[in-house]
Specification:
Layout: H1 13-44, H2 60-63, E1 70-72, E2 93-95, E3 97-98, E4 101-102, H3 104-110, H4 112-118, H5 127-136
Antiparallel strand pairs: 1-2, 3-4
Length: about 140
């Protein structure tokens, strides 16, 4: 019994050019999002031999200075309660920092609109592709 199939793509030159361009844009986006996290980590970390056990050396204001502290729900949520009402409603405010941990995925997904505005090349990619790239980084 055969459970899987193998498919071989034979793209034309035009399709190959499009695929290569899309992969390059995805690679750039992945590296940028990963680099964003690493830059934040480098800016806020302290050496283990100089870190007090009670508090951080770096003030909290500096740690979270470039990170939006809250986000606003832009539409009603998809999940419903027993009576059919959405669990989250448009206009609800949520924190981007929970338990001292930054919700990077949420912040980076919200920033995708700005990415498409700043870099028009990304407009050719579907929004789902960019969201998947941000989730993987």
């Amino acid at each position: 019994m055969q459970l899987t199939y193998k498919y071989r793509l034979k793209p034309t030159k035009a399709q190959l050019t499009t695929i290569v361009a899309h992969l390059e844009l995805c690679r750039r986006q992945y590296n940028y999002r990963l680099g964003e996290r690493f830059r934040w980590w480098e800016a806020t970390r302290t050496p283990i031999n100089a870190c007090p056990l009670i508090v951080s050396i770096v003030p909290v204001e500096e740690i979270y200075q470039n990170i939006p502290l809250t986000r606003v729900q832009t539409r009603d949520g998809r999940k419903k309660d027993e009576s059919g009402n959405p669990l989250t409603k448009k206009g609800d405010i949520f924190s981007n920092i929970e338990g001292g941990y930054v919700q990077w995925q949420t912040i980076q997904l919200a920033d995708l609109k700005n990415t498409k505005k700043l870099f028009p090349d990304y407009k050719v990619l579907d929004s789902q592709v960019l969201q998947d790239v941000a989730r993987q980084s």
